[in-house]
Amino acid sequence: MAATVAATNIMSSLKLRANETDTDQVSLFKPETLTTPELEEKLRQLKDPGEPPIEFRIHSNLTVISKIVDDFDCFLTRNGGHCWIFSTRGLCTVAQDELIFIFNENINSANDIITDLLIHIHQIYIDATKGSFVRHLGLSLLSNSSTLLGSSTAMGFLYVSDPTSQYNLFPEAPYVFGILIHRLELPTAQCFPMRLLLRLGYEYQSYPWPLFSVCDRNSMFSDTQHTIMSLLCDFRSFTYVLPIIRSLTISVGIQGSVSIRIPRNRHDDILKALEQSSPHALSFGIMNVNREIHSKHLVTMQNSADQQYETHLLSSLTPNAEHIRIGGNFLVINASLRSRDSPSSSPLDTQNSGSFSLQNNLNAKVNAIEDGIMLQIDGDALKILKQCLKERKDYAILAKARSIFVEEQNDSRNENVMKRSSSEQLVEFLWIDDDNDINRGVRSPIDHFPMDGIRNSRIHYAGQRSSLFRLRWTDLFFIECLLNSNESFDPTRLADSLAKAFTQALTPFIDMLVEAKYRKLGLRVTIDRENASYIAGSNGEQLPPFFLSQLDDHMIPIVMKASDNVSRSAPSLVLELIFYLLD
């Protein structure tokens, strides 16, 4: 079976990497297996709403908070079940997003779940200290065991970001949710994780996907030979996969029109997809679901009888009448049609979007395929489209539409049928404003200033050691950074100098910071010719005057020198550095 072969290939490469891991570090944490009375007492505390959450201590800078609850809104609790939540505290100190794992209540494997999960989290911590992180759509797989959470079919976790989902046990943003994946799902999770996530959403009536895991569930996909993805991805050696574009959306209108919206700041990703494409085809997929645009989404299911992939529709439990467009997972453009004898395109000048190419070419065809859209055009049209994408210009083509609109039936399983749209549909590629869907929910420790949409860099210090305590610089936020291209000023070099000065100034007073419970600190610096200043704070307020006076001697010379090196015409530069106080 292709899926089994692919999963074996992935695990073989993983074991090679695992053998290179520092065994001394990995062996630092070995959780003890609880005796039956101890486990029963833990489970009683976990389930008792009057008891506080249990804290599992992996080491001094990494703990896991756990509780079994029935008030977290999801498919499990809506059907009378409970959620077993595990939430980390301390991964942020090694520039790794905090992790949240939510399981169905599975008391029979409770000991295995606790032990295996704590070991897995510790391994992620060790990997992060070496510069390997798990992010949105990333994977963490088991390495030194044949089972995970007591299951021989569980292979690891697929991670998704959902800052809109909040609960009192969750850590401070940023965090990601770990979704348990089946052994046979590993090739799909590796090559096109969005397909698996939406399929799980359909299975558990959770739009767009569940944030919980069901232990010992059946695989959603068991074969990769009968899908169009076998042409777009290498499921065996993974030498190529479907390019995915952050914040790109693929939408199907109620009558069958198709629009592909591309943020302008993702032009480099489009260029990479163009470079990887063949002369006769082009394809790319999405990286997230835009719930502000779509309340429904195409999803594909594998037929158990013949292993074929079928198109279905996943709907939000609370659909918005204004959001009537249906989301697609990927787009395949195939130049399989013969070119017409006469030219089929005419460039039209439009305001705001520059050059706009419209092709009235009903030789083209568009239809839904699995959980995506296929556009069949001729070679000439593909050349024009690729050129428009390369030059960041809008493009549209009229095409014959086949089965492209999916319609729900009124039953409990949201079954659906394919409905033919009108015979002629517009397929448009539109460049839209820059996306800022990053760092949602992240707040400054100085004054809770929202970092939504502000780009940042994670700082990695491999092998840094100290004595009892240390300050670790983990993040650099570019709140305002629009320096001219001819500026010789380097904001990252400035940030490095600021970080060194900050740690040198406060390290002698670590015990006072600990006593004041200043575990996460921020340093915000403003640089321009007219104003050079800094502020430092923690827990939503500025640091007391004593600490600021210690910082002045170290910070002011650097800030003033940086201000002198910026040209008068340069806009203001505002940076914020984040530090964590470690045991």
TrEMBL record:
Gene Ontology cellular component terms for the protein in this record: early endosome membrane
Residue ranges of coiled coil: none
Pfam families with a match to the protein in the record: SARA_C
GO biological process: endosomal transport
Top-level taxon of the source organism: Eukaryota
Domain Smad anchor for receptor activation-like C-terminal as annotated: residue spans: 170-559
Protein name: Smad anchor for receptor activation-like C-terminal domain-containing protein
Species, as recorded: Rotaria magnacalcarata
